[in-house]
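re the bet — no i am not wrong, look at it urself. input seq straight from the record:
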Amino acid sequence: MPGRGGIWQRPDSLWEATAPPPPVLPALQDSVQADVLVIGGGFTGLSAALHAAEAGRRVVVLEASELGRGASGRNNGQVIPTLTRPDPADLIDRFGWESGERLVGLIRDSASTLFDLVRRLGIDCAAEQTGWVQPVHSPGRIKIAERRATQWGKFGADVELLDRAAVSAILGTDAYFGGWMNRTGGHINPLALVRGLAAKVVEAGAAVYVNSPALSVQRRGDSWVARTPQGMVTAGSLVLGTNGYTASIFPEIRTEVVPVLSWQMATAPLGDNVRKTVLPGRQAMSDTHGDLRFMRYTADNRLVTGGALLNPVNGAERLKRIVGARLAGMFPALNGVTFDYVWNGRIAMTTDYFPRVHRLGPNGFAWAGCNGRGVALSVSLGRELARAAIGQDPKDLALPFTAPTPLPFNALLQRIGPLKILQYRWNDAREV
């Protein structure tokens, strides 16, 4: 959102209010050389930069605005080691056994990869590896939980199928009919993780430049050359990690995803008497509604939840009423709950809910399409993209490359995208 003088200013999010301050970083004002150029200062880019720098490579990161400006600093902070829709069998059917199995393994371990990295580096981001649970909202949806628990369990994930009593005990409500959980999931303060990662990237020897958008990126000879308003980077390899905020200089990637506005909101801190009855184990939760219900706690016992809107006009006040009533219907103890923060950001959706991984050219790599599962997935894919960028054979990595598939009438899809909520609500009311 524009501020004075056209400078972008972050919405008043809970994460901005509670995250440790960012490292002081410059804008690029010179011509520099690197082994690896990373475009995007979110989870993907910073993970790629960290792993490449720790491998001894010279790394430059270009962030168009401030750290955490995009989805990485403005999401719900749930660390979920699955995809939104595709299951392991779907991934193997799409990408083949070898490539699909490697991607399944990356996703299965993605939450632990993030939490292990946080512990190794000592990043202060309110990390809680308390597990993630997906309750089912209608009797017929229990087959979803059965399928996902079975498939992920087959590949070694720490999962459990839950009956109605078990879900009621975990959540503190009888609104659901069962579900499943993955014990490696959890939640973090996402902006704190971005800032903490950036500090560790700098400590590892990389250069991170903020307010330095890439205005052009070209392949010249055996190098990638990126120009910013006041500088230039020349590098042997390129990693693009901008997802739903991809610039128009990468049109094929920008137009193969549909950026969707996602609203987040945080209650006032809840008293211990309420917290011990509502999600008492502090797991992250997101259910089987298409019009999603989701929640998790913060370190100071705020419940962070959110919702979707057909029309963003006066969205914050409308969501306070809608989500407040929804919470009270599930948890009588939350009747009259108030919200101190409401904010939003864009998530990158694909029409089939699969992520996209691409070669941009010689030694150039990118991915897009988080579909609401970007926290754990971005950190792990950033590591894999770094390995490719420093010369490991991509055939041995969890990188199922496909050609970009721009969506016809992408601009129109972005305009009518919110209408998808109507379909979700229709399906939510049926056994589908």
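see?? The chain has 13 helices and 18 strands. told u. also Confidence is low (pLDDT under 50) at residues 1-11. so pay up
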